[in-house]
Every structure is written in C-alpha cells, then in structure tokens.
Design brief:
Layout (H helix, E strand, L loop, with lengths): L1 H23 L4 H12 L11 H21 L2 H6 L1 H23 L6 H10 L6 H10 L5 H27 L9 H29 L7 H20 L4 H12 L5 H26 L8 H28 L4 H10 L4 H13 L5 H26 L1 H12 L2
C-alpha cells in the first residue's frame, strides 16, 4: 500500500509541475503531463512501474474525463453537428483504412494482416483532444463539437468494422454472430438517443425543488459508471457510454454544480494519472531498425489519414479552412482504442508482434503531438492565415 500511495503522489506532483512548465512555453498542460509520465516510466528514469492499481485509476480517469466532456458539451450545438460529424467520422475511417492497408503491403504480404493494420489506424481516441480543447476554451466551438460527435460515431463504426472483419476471417472473439453484434450496437445507440431526448425533462421535474447537494453528485457519478458498464456489455467502449451520460446530464437543472465538482475530481486527481499512464506504459523493448521504419510509415498514415479525411469532410459541409484543419488535427490521437484493436488482432493471430510494437509507439507519438498541433491550429495567427484562403475565393 505504501508503494501505491507513493506512486500516486509522485505522479500527481510530476504531472502538475510538467503542466506548469508546459504552460510557461504556451503549450497545453496535458502535454507536460504526458512528458512527465514518460520521464517517470521505463523509457527514462523508471521510477514507477505501471501496475493494476494505476491501471484501475487510469481507466477511471479516462471515463470521468469523457463524462466531464459530455457535461461541458452544448447539446444544441451537438445536435446541429449530427450530419457533419457523421460524414467526418466516415471519412476519418475510410481514408486511414485505405492508406494503411496499401502501405502495409510495403512490408507484409498477408492480406488479412494488412487489412487489419488499416483497421488499427482508423481508431480515434478523443480524450487527449477533449482536455486540450477544454484548456483552450474551444470545446463548444463548431470544430470542438464536430470532433466530439465524430469521435463517438467513429467508435461505433470502428466496432462494426472490427466485427465484420473478425466474422469474415472466422475469428469471432466471443462466439456471437456478426448479426448479434450489430443488433446490440444498434440497440445501445437507439437507447442512448432516446435517453438523451426524453430523460432530462423527467430528471428536471424530480429535482425541481431539490437544492444542489452531494447526493446528486454521487448518483451522477454512479450513473456515469453504470452507463459505461452497459456500453461495454453491448460491445462499445466504456468512454463512449460515459460521454453519452454526460450529454444527458448536461441538460439538467444542476449542471453547473455537477460541472464544478466533477471537474475537481477529474482534473485534480484521476485525469493526471490517466495522462501519466500513457508514458508509463511506453517500453522500447524489441525495437530495431525495421520496426522504426514500419513505425514511421504507420505514424505518417495515422496523421495524414485523419487530417486529409476529416478535413475534406468538414470542407464538404462548408466549414472554413481553419475549422477543417482543427477537426482533422483533433482526430489524430489514437490512444487506448488503437491498442485494444491491435490486441484483438494479436490474440486472434491476425497480426504479429512485429506490428503490435509499432502500434504502441504510434499511439504514444500521436498522443503527444495532438495537443501541440491543436494549440497551433487554434492560434489566432494560423487561424487568420488559413481563413484568408476562404476570403480569396
């Protein structure tokens, strides 16, 4: 127990100091937290071992981070972004899938493995983007809302894509048919839409004469965890369930009270552990020159695939050049979604360890560069420079 408490204390101090240094250089605090985790892990000083205790807190951290993002989202703007976010999600999957599969043929000849490499690169993990957008005060801009909406849809479409491939390759993970998987995903999505549309009115009636109190906070946190569990049972990522629960509760009377308290728990304790864990998990064992080449190509596809696909989709919906770039950049980070997908491929014997190691490195690299590129894309100078392209037309 002593060791666990020491590790948590060290992570909290290191990530906070890293965040303060990062802000000094006019970069998002999350970047400093990521670097702090890397320095504490096996790549640098190896002061902390990533164990089950930290993994649990890290998982809670990302769940509450996405719950907080849902609470902070303007539901009216989110509804407006439905069509554009859907198309952005589709293009953000299609372009990396095609590019990733084609580039894989430069190194491997197995068709199944190459297609699955493309699938790995379609993943999007928006947790780092959410924190950066919140720091920049851009969460409820048109770009921010479209990024969040597209990421949720991306998660569902990515699950369907993996299910189709596993069924096609005869590698079902749980023994359930593709039809059953699709039915469960559809049922969860339908239930989520209905809950967001109908439940807030009922909850507001129930709490109309109740003043904000700790009981409301406790029940809300429990609801976020419960919906996250239900999402996983239906085969969807827990973070998507937590985000949808946040969207639902963003419409209740006591939203501001919840926001204040959930932010204290998330930003002050759990989220720093999640950000640090990305660096703590990094390990360069088994890395050689060939792995570096494969990693470089995968990283290029991971970045360009999302930027090209999502930016193009945003332009189709008449968004400005600056908004299009912001959306493309915001979808770059892969995070735990890509790792989970790669893990499924590894366990199903579709991909080899030679592919799994570059995937982990690409996850770390995309996680680190996303806040940097987001900061640059939202800077007034770059926004003005990109929007002059619209004025010239």
């Amino acid at each position: 127990m002593e060791n666990v408490l020491w590790n948590i204390a060290l992570i909290l101090v290191a990530t906070k100091v890293g965040g303060m240094i990062s802000r000094k250089f006019k970069m998002p605090e999350v970047l400093g937290a990521l670097v702090a985790g890397t320095l504490l892990g096996p790549i640098a000083f190896n002061l902390i071992q990533y164990d089950d205790n930290l993994k649990l807190l890290s998982n809670l951290g990302v769940i509450f981070l996405m719950f907080l993002a849902g609470l902070e989202t303007d539901i009216t703007e989110f509804k407006k972004a439905g069509k554009s976010a859907s198309f952005i999600a589709v293009m953000g999957i299609f372009v990396p899938l095609v590019l990733g599969t084609l580039c894989a043929f430069l190194f491997f000849t197995n068709v199944e493995e190459n297609i699955f490499i493309g699938v790995i690169l379609t993943a999007t993990s928006v947790s780092i983007t959410v924190e950066t957008l919140a720091e920049l005060g851009k969460l409820n801009t048109r770009s921010g809302v479209n990024i969040l909406g597209a990421a949720v849809i991306d998660d569902v479409l990515g699950l369907v894509l993996i299910s189709v491939l596993l069924a096609s390759f005869g590698r079902e993970q749980s023994g359930q048919s593709l039809a059953t998987t699709l039915l469960m995903v559809g049922a969860f999505c339908a239930a989520g839409v209905l809950a967001i549309a109908l439940l807030p009115k009922f909850l507001n009636k129930m709490t109309k004469n109740i003043r904000p109190n700790p009981a409301i906070l406790t029940f809300s946190l429990a609801a976020a965890l419960l919906v996250a569990v239900i999402a996983e049972r239906f085969g969807i990522a827990a973070i998507t369930g937590a985000y949808l629960c946040g969207l639902l509760l963003s419409q209740i009377n006591h939203k501001e009270y919840l926001l204040h308290n959930v932010k204290a728990i998330s930003s002050g304790f759990l989220s720093p552990i999640f950000f640090a864990s990305v660096g703590l998990e990094a390990n360069l064992n088994g890395v050689n020159s060939e792995v570096f080449v494969i990693t470089a190509v995968m990283f290029a596809v991971a970045v360009l695939g999302k930027v090209i696909g999502c930016s193009y989709a945003a332009r189709v919906f008449k968004m400005s050049h600056s908004e299009s770039v912001q959306i493309g950049v915001g979808m770059i980070s892969r995070g735990e979604v890509a790792i989970i997908t790669a893990n499924i491929g590894l366990q199903s014997h579709i991909i080899s360890q030679e592919v799994f190691i570059p995937t982990i490195i690409v996850v770390i690299l995309t996680t680190i560069i996303t806040p940097i590129l987001l900061k640059l894309s939202f800077s007034n100078k770059n926004t003005a420079r990109l929007d002059t392209l619209d004025a010239q037309k």
